[in-house]
Automatic annotation (TrEMBL):
Location relative to the cell: Cell membrane
Keyword terms: Carboxypeptidase, Cell membrane, Cell shape, Cell wall biogenesis/degradation, Glycosyltransferase, Hydrolase, Membrane, Multifunctional enzyme, Peptidoglycan synthesis, Protease, Transferase, Transmembrane, Transmembrane helix
Enzyme Commission designation: 2.4.-.-
Domain called Glycosyl transferase family: residue spans: 65-237
Source species, domain of life: Bacteria
Chain segments annotated as transmembrane: 12-29
Molecular-function annotations in GO: glycosyltransferase activity
Protein's UniProt name: Transglycosylase domain-containing protein
Length: 623
């Protein structure tokens, strides 16, 4: 019964709809007034979106080498018309749509023949799709096998023919079609299977690739090479039959060896490239006004703006861009290996961020011992209390800046209590009156709290505000912050960034991974326009550099020492030994290292080893 109904419906479609459709088109060509009316209806109902195809984007390192290919959503490199081999154009027209240059987007004779075959079957076996119809399906529709979709396809194809020239349609088609194994368009296919541009391929190789789109899974050149080769030979025979090749050339092309070698997608340095994508979104946010809109919106509007930003981010990544970064591959690999080598302990993790402080460039990042792309990234997502590593930023530099104190100035390292808050020195000891230098290099707690109390918590946080610590809140503005008591804390990226101020005469500019973003032709699309802010005077930072140096040469950071023109840093240990920090610098680099567990717990057992110091030394001493 179902088959009879299908047959009846099919014949009704042929005998009723097809003549009407032909009449409509005929009238549209002969009656000017009707043309306008018919076209107005199409224009109203069918809106052709921008036909700019999505393309593969790339991340490059500081040496201009590709380190990551981003296929969002498709692996495609658009090939301009003048770069598409004429041989390939002729081949696709002959193989897919021999009346391409004559029809209005659909071939009525072929459609009738296909319908007659399909109504005798329990499925849609023959499509009779023209190149324009296939383009309509790939750009605007889906691949559902139904008469409704087919009708939409016809209307879209007709509208495409009205909008674009035949040459433009053919170019779009060749850049749109699917070549299996994730490759869209001829250029991506050429690179995937032959590691060459399409313009560099032989005619035999081009014909081989042209064999795939007719049925990509069936003619998969990796799994079904013989099928693809046989179809290539049929296409070459078709060219010969139509007079585009002589017999001798056809035989030569058939015999030419075709070797497929599947290119592996480039995706190196996941720790770094994951952050690059995050920074790109932030760059778009700043460059296109999203930040300003978000700051002036309520919660409901913010959600809408964030969705709009995400759409724009996806659009930029899919447009075919090159993200030029500051990544130093050798330094990245050394930092990665240093974290793994010095953290052999179960569940103990680490992160590291390396910055060239003179250029404010992020050279390397480690998100964890065995970081995988898009996992939790400890270097920029791992917020932890900083312990004593915060003292240079919140206590000592602000105090010295405001009081012009000498490093020999004396401060009490005895017990201290105020409003019920009674901090203790490490081990509970008391040390009487000590110099600022001694208090700093031995990381005594009570002097730090006294110093912050002297200048006022608000004054200390005025300086800290310049560093844009993402999760510092009003509730953190209390005396315990002097020894690292924050609600959420900081990341190794944030801490290393802030410490660059000590190498730039008190000036701070946010370090970045991205140098610039260009299109595939080299035109600059986005660039950071960060401005420097003077946080402290050169006099203050000179004194801080002396203190930081003394920590490494004779204080809590001695294990990090290695001979160099300048070296300095600050350790940090949090309550109950949950976190170990070391943020330090030499003449060229500033590096922040964190060690701890993802679920905070006591790791005092590894304290004497000092893995954070060893990781830092290995990274810095090899540069």
């Amino acid at each position: 019964m179902a088959f009879i109904l299908r047959t009846f419906t099919g014949y009704m479609f042929i005998f009723i709809f097809l003549p009407i459709f032909i009449i409509l088109i005929s009238l549209s060509l002969s009656e000017a007034s009707n043309v306008q009316s018919f076209h107005e209806i199409l224009d109203e109902r069918i809106e052709l979106e921008d036909s700019k195809l999505s393309q593969t984007s790339y991340i490059k390192d500081r040496n201009d080498q590709i380190i990551s290919e981003i296929h969002k959503p498709m692996n495609r490199t658009y090939l301009p018309s003048d770069k598409i081999p004429p041989f390939l154009k002729e081949l696709f027209v002959l193989a897919e749509d021999q009346h391409f240059y004559d029809h209005l987007g659909f071939d009525l004779t072929a459609m009738g023949r296909a319908l007659a075959i399909n109504i005798q079957s329990s499925d849609i076996e023959q499509g009779a799709s023209t190149i324009t119809q296939q383009l309509a399906r790939n750009l605007y529709l889906n691949h559902e096998r139904s008469y409704n979709r087919k009708l939409s396809e016809l209307l879209y194809a007709y509208e495409i023919e009205r909008t674009y020239s035949k040459e433009e349609i053919l170019d779009l088609y060749i850049n749109t079609i699917y070549f299996q194994n994730g490759a869209y368009g001829i250029e991506a296919a050429a690179n995937l299977y032959f590691q060459k541009s399409a313009s560099k391929l032989s005619k035999a190789q081009l014909a081989f690739l042209a064999a795939i789109p007719n049925n990509p899974s069936y003619y998969d050149p990796v799994k079904n090479f013989d099928r693809t080769k046989k179809r290539q030979e049929r296409l070459l025979k078709l060219l010969s039959d139509k007079g585009f090749l002589n017999q001798e050339e056809r035989e030569k092309l058939v015999k030419e060896p075709v070797t497929v070698s599947l290119k592996t997608r480039i995706d190196k340095y996941a720790d770094y490239t994951t952050y690059v994508e995050v920074e790109l979104k932030e760059l778009i946010r700043e460059s296109e006004g999203f930040s300003k809109r978000l700051s002036n919106s309520n919660d409901k509007n913010k959600e809408h703006i964030e969705k709009e930003l995400q759409t724009r981010f996806d659009e930029v990544l899919g447009s075919g861009i090159i993200i030029h970064t500051s990544l130093d591959p050798l330094l990245q690999e050394r930092a990665k290996q240093a974290v793994k080598r010095h953290l052999p302990y179960t569940d103990v993790e680490g992160s590291a961020t390396v910055i060239n402080h003179s250029k404010n460039e992020i050279l390397a990042m480690v998100g964890g011992k065995n970081y995988k792309k898009y996992d939790f990234h400890r270097a920029f997502q791992g917020y932890r209390q900083p312990g004593s590593s915060i003292k240079p930023l919140l206590v000592y530099a602000p105090y010295i800046e405001r009081t012009q104190a000498l490093l020999s100035e004396r401060i009490s390292a005895d017990s201290f209590c105020i409003n019920g808050y009674c901090p203790k020195n490490y081990g509970g000891g008391t040390y009487g009156m000590v110099s600022l230098e001694s208090a700093f290099i031995h990381s005594f707690n009570t002097p730090a709290v006294r110093l912050l109390n002297t200048i006022g918590v608000e004054e200390g946080f005025k300086d800290l505000k310049h560093f844009d610590f993402n999760k510092v809140s009003k509730t953190d503005k209390v005396l315990p912050a002097a020894v690292g008591g924050f609600t959420y804390g900081m990341t190794s990226l944030e801490m290393a960034s802030a410490y660059t101020t000590f190498s730039n005469d008190g000036s701070f500019r946010q370090p970045r991974a991205i140098q610039k973003v260009t299109d595939l032709n080299g035109k600059t699309l986005f660039e950071w326009k960060d401005k420097s802010v003077q946080v402290w005077s050169k006099s203050t930072t000179d004194k801080m550099r002396t203190l930081l140096n003394r920590v490494v040469t004779s204080g809590t950071g001695r294990k990090s020492y290695y001979p160099t023109s300048y070296i300095g840093g600050k350790t940090g240990t949090t309550n109950d030994y949950h976190d170990y920090w070391f943020i330090g610098l030499n003449e060229e680099l500033t590096t922040g290292v964190w060690v701890g567990k993802d679920r905070p717990s006591n790791i005092k057992a590894i304290e004497t080893t000092g893995p954070q110091l060893l990781i830092w030394r290995e990274i810095m001493s090899g540069y």
